Amino acid sequence: MDDTAQSVRILIADDHPIFRDGLRKLLEAEKDFKVIGEASDGGEAIEMANQLKPDVLLLDLSMPGPPATETIAYLHEQHPELKVVILSAYDDDAFLRSLVPRVSGYVLKDETTYALVRAIRAVMQGDKWFSRRVVDQLAQVEAN
Questions:
Q1: Range list of β-strands (E), the chain
Q2: Do residues 52 and 37 lie in contact, with contact meaning Cβ atoms separated by under 8 Å?
Q3: DSSP secondary structure string for all residues of 98-129
Q4: What's the pLDDT tens digit per position in 124-142?
Q5: What distance in Å separates the CA atoms of residue 38 and residue 80, rounded to the nearest whole number?
Q6: For residue 1, is pLDDT > 50?
Q7: How far is Cα 98 from Cα 105, in angstroms, rounded to an integer?
Q8: pTM for this prediction
Q9: pLDDT tens-place string over residues 74-87
Q10: Amino acid 143: pLDDT
Q11: Using CA atoms, how far apart are residues 121 and 56, in angstroms rounded to an integer?
Q12: Which of 38, 95, 104, 134 can pair with 123 through a Cys bridge, CB separation 3.0 to 4.6 Å?
């Protein structure tokens, strides 16, 4: 049996090459993950998602090209099966409220690799996964 048939196909979109390279190595250490591409801006992320049809897109919020909200809206419409997981250093209220309904997960870059792996596995099972700090921030916004 072909191992790649069972692999979670991941596209990384981040404008920092060193970060992408390190993330690729960490993710590919998981036997069931395969990084199928790397994009350095929002336009390239859209192009590669259209061509490569990944299962999961790890998307940085702050990159050149179209704003992340436009990228996510397009992908949500064109590829509803695609699991978009935000991977960002930002936990700004405005971003969170606008993105949460359209993404499968939101992982902060200060999380452990284990948390990111858990997030990818969760979204592939149809669940949503958000960093604890993101959940707390959303709960605080709702409470006010």
A1: 8-13, 33-39, 56-59, 83-88, 105-108, 129-130
A2: yes
A3: HHGGG-SEEEETTS-HHHHHHHHHHHHTT--E
A4: 999 999 988 888 777 776 6
A5: 20
A6: no
A7: 13
A8: 0.89
A9: 999 999 999 999 99
A10: 62
A11: 10
A12: 104
